[in-house]
User: What shape does this take?
Amino acid sequence: QVQLVESGGGLVQAGGSLRLSCAASGTILSINSMGWSRQAPGKQRELVAGISSGGSTNYADSVKGRFTISRDNAKNTVYLQMNSLKPEDTAVYYCNTKGLRANGRDFEVWGQGTLVTVSS
Assistant: This one.
């Protein structure tokens, strides 16, 4: 059974920082891509940041320069360091993996989400 467990969400003031973590559990051989998406009420879910197995990263324009995605392959964990947070960053943040190989198969897996609230 493969599962993603997210942590690190909470309430922060504008200008503050927060680090989200997402750990993939189970017997996992490899994960090709890992990323973070977010969804605010009444808005579409959007990709915030992604990172490939080779370490290449991409960011939404709205967070570029403020957020940093990283991964620890030994721990099957992806992180999102969020700095200079703005009220418009308030959303539920979801971890996602693509090409997660376990038990001889590839999976796409989503976490349950963690709420980030930024007060003005």
